[in-house]
Amino acid sequence: MMKKTVLTGLRPTGNLHLGHYFGAGKNYLKLQEEENPFYLEIADVQALTDHFEDPEMVRKNVLEMTKDLLAIGLDPNKVCFFIQSKIPEIAELTVFYSNLVTVSRLERNPTVKTEIAQKKELFGNQGESITYGFLGYPVSQAADITAFDGEIVPVGDDQLPLLEQCREIVRKFNSIYKETLKEPQPILTKTTRIKGLDGSDKMGKSLGNAIYLVDDASTIQKKVMGAITDPQKIKKDDPANPDICMVYYYHKLVNTEENIQKVCTECKAGTRGCVNCKKELIAAMNEFLKPIQERRKYYDEHPDIVMKILEDGSKEARKKATEQMKKVKQAMQIDYEKN
Ligand code: ATP
Ligand code: MG
Questions:
Q1: Is the minimum distance from the CB of 23 to ligand 1 under 6 angstroms?
Q2: Threshold 0.85, pTM exceeds
Q3: Which residue among 47, 75, 97, 271 is the one 20 to 30 A from 292 at the CA level?
Q4: Is the distance from the beta carbon of residue 193 to the nearest atom of ligand 1 less than 6 Å?
Q5: According to the model, what pLDDT value does residue 123 have?
Q6: How confident is the model at residue 128 (pLDDT cuts 50, 70, 90)?
Q7: Is 217-296 a CATH 1.10.287.180 domain?
Q8: Residues 257 and 195: beta-carbon distance below 8 Å
Q9: Is the CB of 210 under 6 A from ligand 1?
Q10: What CATH number belongs to 6-195+303-338?
């Protein structure tokens, strides 16, 4: 069977958290074995759309995030890691595609809408001043995918409206110019959206509610101890509803089937105190993170290797984007070299 081209991206705005791992990362690991080529973009330009005043943060996290991705087990021989800003064709494509999207369509994009609302909540009125760049990031994301002829895009479900926007741009491009671009398909994990420690809908780097893969034992302890449990449970032996408890929710991610069942039964029966339950979760969480943190240590000690992976990957990715750009320009009749 023909292998498919995989493309995905992450914004270098912080370390990887459990949301990334269970929402998307598990599929990266699967797809690196099954499909080829696999382009993984560190989306520094996109991170700057809403962090343009904090270039040091973005710069630092390019390396941090790449180390985390290597630490979960991605193999640089199977995955082409690249930095978005190293591929100017993406910026060029973004300009071309910007004609194919209306401003009102961008404003209606559910993910963009949610993110704007979150910004207002976090930063008050400052959230009103949404830049042209931020509103347009779904357009640049369409460029990210199509610059590499991406067919499969492993993502968390917050990305689905952005993928749909990309597919619309592709259809419009193909109908106005000529059949050139492929419509990418999203791929989700079973756990499509991981909730935050505070019980909110999405664990996010920018939301301050995440457990990071680099968190040490004492940080995990603090975070888990503060996680939201069933508010109806007052005393240790009150029965409770595990389905509204964040501690049970994370047990389901990192613990064994047998233990998960036990937590659920005992919680419902009122034979399990929350403090004890949290302690067990802390142990399971540390166990889950141990091999990831061990692998990460190697890359912490060898930042030059990480930089080389990004440099080599960016060169390889640029070759693909250059080829693709030729096809796009030909379709748009702006391939002047030919005349
Ligand atoms: P930011 O707040 O800066 O946007 P983020 O935590 O949303 O950061 P991204 O870099 O935007 O992270 O997303 C990278 C990938 O991880 C995307 O595929 C996204 O869908 C997925 N992802 C991020 N958070 C979650 C989550 N809580 N559950 C499932 N998937 C997630
Ligand atoms: Mg995001």
A1: yes
A2: yes
A3: 47
A4: yes
A5: 72
A6: low
A7: no
A8: no
A9: no
A10: 3.40.50.620
